[in-house]
Amino acid sequence: MTHAAANDGFDALVIGAGVVGAAIAAALAARGLAVLVIERARQEGSGITSRNSGVIHSGLYYPPGSLKADTCLRGQALLYAWASARAVAHARIGKLVIARGPAELEALDALEANARASGVADLERLGPAAIARREPALPRAESALWCPNTGIVDPHGLTRSLRAAAEADGAIFAMGLEVTRLVADPRGGVTALSGDDELRAPIVVNAAGLDADRLAARVGVDRPIYPCRGDYFRLHGARGRYHHLIYPVRPRQSPGLGVHLTLELDGGVRLGPDAEYVDRRDDLSPPPASKLDRFHRAAEALLGPIPAIA
Questions:
Q1: Is the Cβ–Cβ distance between 65 and 216 less than 8 Å?
Q2: Last residue of a domain, one of 190, 217, 244
Q3: Is residue 74 part of a domain?
Q4: Residues 6+ apart with CB under 8 A from 23
Q5: Which residue of 111, 122, 184, 198 sits 20 to 30 Å from the alpha carbon of 173, by its own alpha carbon?
Q6: Based on the domain organization, do 283 and 195 belong to the same domain?
């Protein structure tokens, strides 16, 4: 991007070419806007999008009537439609939330009530026999919530498809460039600076992932990110053993949903992610070995005896 090209009449600047930035660029370009996407990596979806579990959620956990609840349900329908139309790999495999013991049964009742109040469709409460028919490898469970519309999608394929749609409608992706400053323009709009280049656009979308709060702070928006790390372990020797996503009832006071089983489109099986607030947002190193025993215990509480994990 040269200095001259950077001021060439774009209607909108999107900072970040992860799945969110690419989706926004596609939506804006489809409306006829001239869109420039700036991404510091050389490939779209290289940041936190590349660490996404790929789960298409059903909206069980959000407060009824909240923006998260409403957009999760609408987004689920739109995502399935998009993936089908664009040949993005996905599978509507369904999810079981398992309850054992009185406390978990009570929590499952509350979760089901919340989900139904939020408009989640086609939920079904299963007893031990029905659970066993769906997941024969599981130990006996008193009850489960069956969520047939939960699924999985290829995050990289989805992001590529969104970029392709945006570019088909005229959006330009400037890769390998980093926005280092944002300056609010008193005349309206925002000026973004990348090295010696600058761009002023009436619409600037901050989709910069883990650095979004740092960019926003430069124009007076104080919305800090509190980094929450999630680790995975792979469950070996389990291909074909499980047929659906399998979750525990959400533990009390937990920032996440508890260690759960996620199936991959290629048949692989993962456990996780867990959720742990951390100080460093840039620590993407492999999980420490000390977590292995904790994951193993949590997984066996949900799944019974399991093959090795690593």
A1: no
A2: 217
A3: no
A4: 162
A5: 184
A6: no
Residues 135 and 242 in one domain: yes
Contacts of 276 (CB under 8 A, 6+ apart): 228, 229, 230, 231, 255
pLDDT digits (tens, 9 = 90+) for 8-61: 589 999 999 999 999 999 999 999 999 999 999 999 999 999 998 999 999 999
Peptide bond just before 273 cis, omega within 30 deg: yes
**What contacts 181, CB < 8 A, 6 or more positions away?**
192, 193, 218
Q: Which domain holds residue 283?
A: 91-151+228-303
35-39/12-15 β-pairing:
parallel
- DSSP for 243-294, please give it: -SEEEEPPPTT-SS--S-EEE-TTS-EEE----EE-S-TT--PPPPTTHHHH
Q: Give the single-character DSSP code of 90.
A: E
Contact yes or no for 243/281 (Cβ under 8 A): no
Neighbours of 64 (CB within 10 A): 15
Residue the block writes with tokens 């991404």: 39
Helix, coil or strand: residue 83: helix
For 187-208, write each residue's pLDDT tens digit: 777 888 888 888 888 999 999 9
Instruction: Tell whether omega for the bond before 286 is within 30 degrees of 0, i.e. cis.
Output: no
Biggest CA pair distance of the chain = 68
Which residue in 285, 284, 278, 262 sits closest to 47, CA to CA? 284
**Is the separation of the CB atoms in 294 and 272 below 8 Å?**
no
The Cα 52–Cα 142 span in angstroms is: 31
Reading the block at residue 145, the tokens are 């919530």
Output the pTM of the full model: 0.92
